[in-house]
Amino acid sequence: MDDEPQLFDTPGSSAAGFGPAASVGSLADATHSSAPLAVRMRPRTLEELVGQEQLRAPGSPLRQLVEGDQSLSLLLWGPPGTGKTTIASIISQQTGRRFVEVSAVSAGVKEVRSAIDAARRQLVATGEETVLFVDEVHRFSKAQQDALLPGVENRWVTLVAATTENPSFSVISPLLSRSLLLRLQSLTDDDIAAVLDLAVADERGLGGEVVLEEEARDHIVRLAGGDARRSLTYLEAAAGAARSKGVSTGSTTLVIDVATAETAADQAAVRYDRDGDQHYDVVSAFIKSVRGSDADAALHYLARMIEAGEDPRFIARRLMILASEDVGLADPTALTTAVAAAQTVQLIGMPEAQLTLAHATIALAVAPKSNAVTTAIFEAIGDVRAGKIGQVPPHLRDAHYAGAKTLGHGQGYVYSHDAPFGVAEQQYAPDVVLDAAYYRPTELGAEAAVKQRWERVRRIIRGK
């Protein structure tokens, strides 16, 4: 229940003049009866937060921040609908700080600096601290992220920045080093079910106005895909459909059954068993059918997932993983096909994307198979975890900075392009793994040619 696009203004706030890119107040301001169900049901305390047990545990950094009223900047990394905006709101409410939200989609450097300047003035004038929430911080440019640094360094604001992308690649190092990184996990089906049950019963939600049948609840849980906000959106739509039916039939009891949930979500419910095992079994069978080269079986399971309302992006991600895990260099085009399918799914959506998913599924199913890539990286990681981490050979070290040559860096390095066939006899690996042979290509598909070339190249490099 995070990443909400709504901005809530407090009349006469000191943030006036920020423009549309920033807002000030509390997310609690939006809990009026006409607000979306997902907003009304936003947890108010850590105890009400569903899932994320690792963040709510006693003594955890987040609990210390909230209960100890510390000023500490956070980077929240996790999938949509897992509670990033909610956590920012809880910090603001439970510590009595002012809440200011800046949109990374529309704000520029000017708006970021204005928000921080206003927070500093408020702190000096009244002693009131500010939680500055930046949604989708990965969309900020380097200059925009740089603009956040003064507020973080001087603790004029408690920065809470949310991202769905790996902060190591999307957030600048100075900001990353000054913030505590908290990773949020996808919500489980049980978590989503608990969110739905609470929304049905709670006065802030539907207040017991409707009865949610178990099969209908299971259907909404599947469609939500671990996104609490999405589940509440579906529930709200289903409740509206139930009201319409109740009005037309004169019924005093509003019931959300599977048919009503299907109508609201515009999806057909393929019957999975109540515990959800069938759901995971179908996904597993899909992957194993593609791995086993049975295109017909794979298409059957793909159709079941599509009809059950499975997130097409999830299916596309599984195909991308499988392309490297089970096909590898036996068909070098497999990963390209899977990535193109994932991009197409993002661009055109369903139902047209089902053709793209079928295209990629068949292509990967009929492709020759090799798990040599998988074996290679797992063995390499195993050696690293076992402590086999030697020094980088001196001739491979960076020799571009002042004083590097006096340390012997780069001396004796052979430029590969100057060697016959573009391959030089030279030590590349540290001594501790000098004889390691991680990549062992098969003779299946295109990897047979890769195997022949790799064996020749390896002999040249090793001088054997």
How is this structure best described in words?
- The chain folds into four domains: 22-183, Rossmann fold; 189-265, Orthogonal Bundle (Helicase, Ruva Protein, domain 3); 277-366, Zinc Finger, Delta Prime, domain 3; 380-462, Orthogonal Bundle (post-AAA+ oligomerization domain-like), CATH 1.10.3710.
- Helices cover 48% and strands 8% of the residues.
- It has helices spanning 37-40, 53-56, 61-67, 84-95, 109-126, 142-146, 149-153, 167-170, 173-177, 189-201, 214-224, 228-249, 258-265, 277-291, 295-307, 312-327, 333-348, 353-366, 372-385, 447-462, and strands at 22-25, 74-77, 98-103, 130-135, 158-163, 180-183, 210-212, 254-256.
- A six-stranded mixed β-sheet has the order 1-3-4-5-2-6, with helices on both faces. Strands 7-8 form a two-stranded parallel ribbon.
- The longest helix has 22 residues, at 228-249.
- The termini are far apart.
- The model is unreliable at 1-21 and 267-276 (pLDDT under 50).
- Keywords: ATP-binding, Nucleotide-binding.
- This is Replication-associated recombination protein A.
Short description:
With 464 residues, the protein is an alpha/beta fold.
The name of the CATH superfamily of the largest domain reads P-loop containing nucleotide triphosphate hydrolases
Helix content: 40-55%
Q: In order across it, which strands form the biggest sheet?
A: 1-3-4-5-2-6
* DSSP summary: helix tally: 20
The helix/strand class is: alpha/beta
Q: Sheet bearing the most strands, described? A: 6 strands, mixed
**Cα-to-Cα separation, first versus last residue:** 60 Å
Approximate shape: flat
Overall pLDDT metric:
81
Low-confidence stretches: 1-21, 267-276
Q: What CATH architecture of the largest domain do you see?
A: 3-Layer(aba) Sandwich
Order of helices and strands: EHHHEHEHEHHEHHEHEHHEHHHHHHHH
Family: Belongs to the AAA ATPase family. RarA/MGS1/WRNIP1 subfamily.
Keywords: ATP-binding, Nucleotide-binding
Organism: Nocardioides daeguensis
InterPro entries: AAA+_ATPase, AAA_assoc_2, AAA_ATPase_RarA/MGS1/WRNIP1, ATPase_AAA_core, DNA_pol3_clamp-load_cplx_C, MgsA_C, P-loop_NTPase
